[in-house]
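Follow-up to my post from last week.
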Amino acid sequence: MNNASPSPARQAYLLSVRRQKRQVHLWQAALLLGLLALWELSCRVGLSDGFLTSCPSRMAATFLNLCRSGDLWRHIGVSCGETVIGFLSGTALGTVVAICMWWSGKLARILDPYLVVLNALPKTALGPIFIVWMGAGQGAIIVMTLAISLIVTILNMYQGFLSTDGEKIRLMRSLGASRWQILWLLVFPANAPTLFATLKVNVGLSWVGVIMGEFLVSQAGLGYLIVYGSQVFNMDLVMTSIVILAAAAVVMYRLVLWVEKFLNRFWGKGL
Amino acid sequence: MIHLRGASFVYQAPDGEVEALRRVDMDIAPGEFCSVVGPSGCGKSTLLSVISGLEPLTAGTAEVDGAPVCGPSEKIGFMPQRDQLFPWRTIRDNVTLGLTVTKKRTPEALVYADTLLRRYGLWEFAGKRPSQLSGGMRQRCALIRTMATNPKILLLDEPFSALDFQTRLSVSSDISRIIRQEGKTALLVTHDISEAISLSDRIFVLSARPAVVKSVHDLTALQGLSPLERRDTEAFHTYFQAIWKELDHHE
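User reply:
Got it. Predicted complex:
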């Protein structure tokens, strides 16, 4: 690579790459706008019943009403808070259990069948149990979210720890490293990509846990708005809440990507 | 410097006992560069594990620098297969890994590590990551990491196996020069006979598993020549033929 100005061929190539990228973005926006326009039009000409299917203009009005009343931020805040707490605690607890399993092969063998069963079990089935144990509040929702991300984290992180390069472990042992040093200086940093892959999966799973929890028991949150909207046949509220939910989930996923990118730059390519 | 007497090693595998080493005798003098060659899977790497104290002998004795081997020792530096640099650490942090592990990041030790980086042309890359270095530079970095704790003995476990032939020739020559310049005792395990002949003072030929020492070749005819010069001599080909026949490639 040199710092001289690029050749005409290079410039043409870069221009074509930029043009292709712009075209993809334009098509994506056109598809979205086209679908929204079709939806709106079908509602206005009477092809669909706005009461049942809602439409973009009604959703926009609902969104503005929620903003004006100040309820919107409260509901978003509650759901995001529950998701972040469940997601971080599930990831942290799962990583700690995975470390314990890596530390003790015997513990890993003992826990193996339980993890297989818990992984196969739909965690939402445990919802009523959590409500009985934790009470009908945010505690049950957070525990449900944690339960959903916990097992995936344990399994992913443990597999990652096991796949650490054996020659690198041999090198550390030859230097006289203790098990703790092997974990802290090698196994854990070597599995930072596994951790971020798990975090990305957990963001989505945690939203599933929060919305399921809010369906079952809640006074506020996006899940609450969806259930409440469906109970009072306010499909505008249901649709608006789903769109806000999608946006919140994307923002949180992007945040994880941003943190990963930042740390990659900070710690180097191999993280 | 390294003395093995009747060294035997047996390990338990799921499908039975495996005898990796059988009554191996070996004496390596201070400052000597020796190599071990043998068929694939014969126990060459196990031999290094035993000398470095990673695996305990099941029979016989192993002595390093006058003391029996009982666990990893600071007298020994181990260079594993491929460079095994940690991609998330800078070159300087990779080189000082041993000092971090042994909790000996003293100013003097760090100065010594920096001196090695300067002496062997990696100082300007000290703050870079391994991915920014060429294959040869990474190997040099791995060797400096091995020497940063100032061990007397270097155990090299096929360190050049992942390199292409051309890089391998230049890197192995470079590394042998550094080892001799630093006055270290070295034991290289390799499956490449020509590499062993071009770098060593003596070669131990092992049999197929369980490994026993079939023969020892003293490369006196090649003394004083550089690894590349050695490859051009008649003696090189004579040694090669002799060892090749011993390794029995029809197994």
